[in-house]
Amino acid sequence: MNIAAEPIYQLTIPTPFPVGPVHVYLICGELVTLFDSGPLTKKGMHELERQLASIGYKLDDIDQIILSHHHPDHIGLTNKFKRAKTIGHEKLRPWLEKNELFFQQYTDYLKSFYVKNGVPPELMKKIESASHSYLNYTERRSLDIIVKEGDNVPGLPGWIVHEVPGHAQNHIMIMREEDRLALGADVLLASVSSNALLEAPMEGEERPKTLLQYRDSLRKVRDLEISVLMPGHGEMIKDVDSLVEQRLLKHTKRAEAILEILSFRKMNANQIAYELFQEKHRMQPDLTISETIGHLDLLLEYNQVKTKEIDEYTLYFIE
To answer: Where is the Metallo-beta-lactamase domain (predicted)?
Structure first.
């Protein structure tokens, strides 16, 4: 395949979220393919249409949209492409289709989990408010084609799907094997660490240990020998190996900080999160609790901490 005949355009779309603008990518292959779509805002829609027009395309020219994961800055504008087929992981379906029963079960599980981990009512309200707000930046859309690890990307010969859970359970990336160029969305970002966000389990599954998954995904990305990783935010990444090692080391250091905190007494996850993040925990408890639980999962995996249920709360301690 002639790579020069398959141009890739980076389109940078504003978002209302702290992460800043999101990159979506137009691949001009056998099928005109958009990788992610941006958030559902008037400004986002305007920019997407404007940038597509600047390279000679309009919404109806897009044959298919590959969705990396369910976060609203990546899927929000998908329903504006009425002619395009949607492609994603099977665990994306309930998010994209806005399955109300799934959302209720998901919310109920996390609410119970937060309570067990000591999250007080005022922080619970902030977490619930943030979750509801995010859903306003997406529209319901069906998922047409499900892909999994190792699949060839429809309409893009030479591109392979890789599952990279952790930041989201349904996160995928795609790589062009000929030159090892990858579109990675949020699996690895140059200037900030991707959060391994806490998620409820799918029906019949155990709670996913998202940081453990994410660390496995980082090692997988490293081992793919990627030449250039085009991310969902920030600068393109050429030295993937070095950045992966930095991220893994950062996880280790944060886990060590938790061990230091627990050297004094038994604590629940909310108490640990406050010790780690101070005021940020009051402002963004959904993120800080995810970070804390993830690193506690890591310490439990290596038998460096223990848990005990006391009065329906989970306490962590060092023996």
So the answer is: 21-233
